[in-house]
Design a protein that fits this description.
Largest sheet: 6 strands, antiparallel
CATH topology: Metal Binding Protein, Guanine Nucleotide Exchange Factor, Chain A
Number of strands: 9
Number of helices: 3
Strand order of the largest sheet: 3-4-8-7-6-5
Helix content: 10-25%
Distance between the termini: 35 Å
Radius of gyration: 14 Å
Number of domains: 1
């Protein structure tokens, strides 16, 4: 169920703050090319946050190599930080993952992930910022 009171900056502010790719992915439900994003092969410890509103989304402890070319996680940091919506675009039936705080498109959820959840959150790097362990401790 989608939040009705999402906090979203104005379109003008978003266009000034985000790169063209970040805007396309988060605001137009775009998808970056596989194996091109900043975090697809990223191995540092820390928290992946929404690039639009800074909400914590995924922890590095749940990141795994899926072979898909996009950052993949088997669970969200908190289930209330992401929302799932039906996506019937491109003639497919998928589950879209969006930021619960601002509604930014993050990627898609698939049911082919590892234990303990069996889920694969396939997320665009352009939708994420990363806060390393050392930054969290300050």
């Amino acid at each position: 169920m989608a939040k009705m009171d999402r906090t979203r900056p104005s379109d003008d502010a978003l266009r000034k703050e985000l790169t063209d790719e970040q805007y396309h992915v988060t605001q137009e439900a775009g998808t970056e090319r596989a194996f091109t994003g900043k975090y697809w092969d990223h191995k540092a410890d820390g928290t992946y946050r929404c690039v639009v509103c800074n909400t914590p989304l995924f922890d590095s402890d749940t990141k795994f190599e899926s072979g898909s070319g996009w950052p993949s996680f088997y669970d969200a940091i908190e289930s209330g930080n992401v929302e799932l919506e039906a996506d019937h675009s491109l003639g497919m039936r998928r589950t879209e993952v969006v930021c619960a705080e601002c509604g930014a498109h993050l990627g898609h959820l698939f049911e082919d992930g590892p234990e303990p959840t069996g889920q694969r959150y396939c997320i665009n790097s352009a939708a994420l910022d990363f806060e390393g362990e050392e930054e969290r401790e300050q």
